[in-house]
Every structure is written in C-alpha cells, then in structure tokens.
Amino acid sequence: MSSIIVLLSIAVCALLLGAGLTILLRPKSGGTDADLLARLYVLVEREAATARSDIAAQRNSMVEMERAMGGRIERMRTELAEQLGALAGGLGREQAEARAAQAEALRNLADTSAQQLASIRRAVTEQLHEAVEQQMQTSFQRVLEQFSAMQKAMGEVRAMTGQIGDLKRLFSNVKTRGGWGEAQLRAILDDVLPPGTYESNVRIGNGNDVVEFAIRMPVKSSTPPLLPVDSKFPTEAYERLLNAADEGDTAGEKAARKSLENTMRLEARKISSKYIHPPKTVEFAVLYLPTDGLYTEVARMPGLIDDLGRQFRVMVMGPALMPAMLRTIHLGYVTLALEERTETIARLLGATRQEMIKMDGVLDKLARNAQAMSFSIEEARRRTRSVSRKLRELDEPEDNASGTEESEIEFTGVDSNGTASV
C-alpha cells in the first residue's frame, strides 16, 4: 500500500515539474517570471510537505494495520491449533472405535468363514467318499470284466494252441500239405480267371503224371496250348531255416537255406521233365508257393529264381504275384474276345454293303418305272384336255371339226427305254 502512495506522490511531483518547465521554456516577460518561479517553488515545497506528511500518516496506519493483522493472525493460529487438536482427538477416538468395530467384524467374518469352511469340508468329504466308493466299485467291476475277458482270452489261446498243434500235425503230412496249397491255388484261379479257362488234374504226356492245374492260353486255335501250374510247399527246410534264424545259429541257417535251395531246384526239375511238352503245353510252367514268407526266402537266394527260369523254364510264383499273372492271361482272353467280335462286325458290315448295293439297283429300277409312270400320267392329262375340247366344240360350226380331228395324237404306250411314245 505504501509503495502505491509513493508512486502517486512521484507522479504529482512530475506533473508539477512538467508545468514548471513549461513555464520556464516560455519567452521571458520581465519580472513576472521570477515571481512565477517563486510561487512554483513554494507550491512544490508545499506539495512535497503534504506528500511527506501523507506518507508518514499512511506509514503509521500501515504499521498499525500490520500490528492488528499480526494479532489477528496469531489469534487465528491459536484457534486453528485448538480446532486441529480437537479434530485430531475426535479422529483418534473415531479411529479407535472404527478399529474396534473392524476387529469385531473380522472376528465375526472369521467365525462365519470357519463355519462355512467346515460345512464345505464336510460336503466335499462326503462327495469324495461317495465318488471314491463309486470309482472303486466301477474299477472293481472293470477289473472283474477284464479278468473274465482274460480268462476267455486264455481259453481262446489254449484253443488256438490246440489248433496250431493240429495245424502242425496237418502240415506234417505231405499229402495234406499239398492239398492245402492246391485248394489255395484253386481259389485264386476261380477269383481271377473266367469259368472254363483252366482244368484240374490234367494228364500231360504219355506217362501217368498229372499236373494239378492247366490253364488254357488265349490264342486262336481249336486246341490252345496249356500252361502247367503245380503247387509245392517244402515246410521241412523252411521251418529249419526259420528256427535257425530265431536262435541266431548262422551255420544252421546257412545249411537250411542251402537245403531249401536244393529242394526248389529238385522240384523245378521234376516239373520241367513231367509237365512241359510243347506244342500241347507252352514252353514254360509255374511253380506255386502257398505263403509269401516262403516265396520271400526263395527270392532272397541270389540268382535262384533266374536259374530256375533259365535252366528248367519254371517260373516261381507266390500268393502276391500269382493274381497279377492270371490277370494278364484274363486280359488276353478279353483281347481275343474283342478280336472275334471285331471279325464278326467286319463280316456284318460286308454283308450290309452287299445288301446296300442290291438296294441301290432296286431303287434305280423303281426310279425308271416312276419316270415312265409320270410320262403316262402326263399323256392321260393331255388326252383328257383333248376330250374336253371336243366336248366344247359340239356347239361350234362343223367347219372347225376337220381341224380338230387333225390335231388328235394317238398314244401307243411306253417304249423300251421307259419313255412314253405317241
């Protein structure tokens, strides 16, 4: 506030000084200037004194106001401190009460939670007990079922063991073993080849040797050549080979493999000498092995299959390769049937061509007769017009009758070329 008053005083002084300077800068007019300056000086001094006194009074009032404000502020600080103390005490009491209420609520909540947890524990225990009992019953029932299934499976295994023993005894008999291979080969032939394309137990050659199956080859002949197919099942050498391989006996495995090779060569030699008799048969035969395992062991012997085919003209086939060869023969039958059908169609087309040539001659004669008939119809129409003219001339003079008679033309029929003549 005092700074504002000082600024106002300075501004008033500045105005007065400005006015004095304005007067001083005017042109001088004798002694009046000195008087004006003296008055101005007095006026300035008076204003300065007045400003000083005002400033001092204002300073005193400011000091008193500052003192009063300090006392008021001190009283307000005291009152505020008292209010803050009262508020702090109230807050402390309220916090203590709230803390006590919260502790009580927490105790109540803990009791309630403990009761709920106890009830949940009892419910979970009961449910777990029931679930465990049910699971135990189910598991026990499943164990009983599995045990009964195991007993049943053991019974089946015993039965299967008995059947395997019977099968071993069955395969120990050479005749029975050959019958099984023959039945399997017959089933493959029936599945692939059309009916009537093979014969069983066929006598080939002059001796009493009978081949198990003979397939008629698809060729154009009244007596097509036969393909001999014989089934062999050398189980003794094959079983020795498998037993030696399972036991890890390298020497025994080598000896069994050599024995199986010798057996295959011997059987191929028998088939070649007994069943290959061209031209009644083709120049090769088939040796059928009933199991793929046996065929695999034979195929693993280096060069054996090639040697049998080259030396004895015998092809070795297994259950996996035999249907492929039979399908090739079946395809030959299909091709032969197509060729026969093609020849039939060709003969039919030739006969149709001859009939078309004859039909062309008949149509030519019919065309000539139709042309002659057309000429005859035109001549009849002309005669009709002539008769009509004669009827119209009945009412005309008689002198025109001679001219009309001269115009008549006699129709004599059709000449040898089929054209009408007059």
Automatic annotation (TrEMBL):
Keyword Metal-binding among record annotations: no
Region (Disordered): 383-422
Keyword presence, Signal: no
InterPro entries for the chain: DNA_recombination_RmuC
GO biological process, one term: DNA recombination
Pfam families hit by this protein: RmuC (PF02646)
Superkingdom field: Bacteria
Compositionally biased spans, kind Acidic residues: 395-409
Alphabetized UniProt keyword annotations: Coiled coil, DNA recombination
Family: Belongs to the RmuC family.
Function statement: Involved in DNA recombination.
Protein name (database record): DNA recombination protein RmuC homolog
Organism: Acetobacter pasteurianus NBRC 3278
